[in-house]
Specification:
single chain, mainly alpha, 0% strand
């Protein structure tokens, strides 16, 4: 603008109003992931979800963990990555995205030492806020 260095133009209101819903990338679920989630939640759902479809919150967080794995080079044991996604979300929001009962299911299917330690500790996680 008039003699001000670094002045930036702001987008006009109509341009900002055209923005639709924000789409967050989500990872794939393996057949084992889907089976475990359907058994845990008690209902069937499609993956990836269709617009407006209801899916369990746990499925979203498993998808986020799987996406992180893919970005890091490939699918691997789910437990550690799901715990990382869970802790990050808990620190940001104060909410617990998946309960300990679901993590016990994941840990029982895991071969990681972290999962074994979780089960040995009684299947409860520390709360982060």
């Amino acid at each position: 603008m008039y003699g001000r260095r670094g002045a930036q133009a702001t987008p006009s209101a109509p341009a900002a109003a055209k923005a639709g819903p924000v789409r967050v990338p989500i990872g794939p679920l393996t057949h084992e992931d889907l089976r475990m989630l359907r058994d845990y939640c008690g209902y069937s759902f499609d993956w990836p979800p269709k617009d407006g479809q209801s899916v369990p919150k746990a499925a979203l967080f498993v998808g986020y963990a799987r996406l992180q794995q893919i970005e890091d080079g490939g699918l691997r044991d789910l437990f550690g990555d799901l715990q990382q996604v869970r802790i990050s979300y808990q620190r940001l929001t104060g909410e617990n995205p998946v309960d300990d009962a679901f993590l016990v299911r994941v840990a029982r299917s895991s071969t990681s030492p972290l999962a074994r330690a979780f089960l040995d500790a009684g299947g409860t996680s520390p709360r982060y806020a």
